[in-house]
Amino acid sequence: MTREQWEETVPTSIREDPLWKMEAYRIGLFLSDLVWADAGKLLREPRTFSIADQICRACGKISACVAEGYSRGTGKDRARFYEYALGSTREARDWYYKSRFVLKEKVTQHRIDLATQLIRLLVRMVANERRRNRRLGAESALD
Q1: Confidence of residue 142 (pLDDT cuts 50, 70, 90)
Q2: pLDDT tops 90 at residue 105
Q3: Of the candidates 47, 64, 87, 142, which lies 20 to 30 Å from 32 by C-alpha distance?
């Protein structure tokens, strides 16, 4: 399933939320759906039971942290939750690399590429929120 096909299956109530406009949220949510099938394959191999659990937790936290950060009132709070999402994304990418012996190479590379794309977005989002927060702090000091 392509990301475009997947997006059509996401409930309208989620797609109509302003949060849906955030690319990082959409990629994170997509990755959390993809991990279900991947974890099923990992659970068939006893040596990767713990990876299945860890990768599900990491992927599940990404979009949740972006959503929570998006809902925060200050740039400092938003940046903190975007950093949590960044950490979870890097963790997920690490677990996907470790799962390469069970998952097909094409699948593993696709997930690593998605995570890398998401990491780039989140790094920029954190920097933007931090920069915005410094500007606002400087402006209020002038008042």
Answers
A1: very low
A2: yes
A3: 47
pLDDT above 50: residue 104: yes
pLDDT, residue 132, reads: 81
Measure the CA–CA gap between 1 and 108, rounded to whole angstroms: 15
Ranges of each domain in the chain: 11-142
For residue 53, with 0-12 CB atoms within 10 Å meaning exposed, 13-18 middle and 19 or more buried, which class applies? middle
For the whole prediction, is pTM greater than 0.70? yes
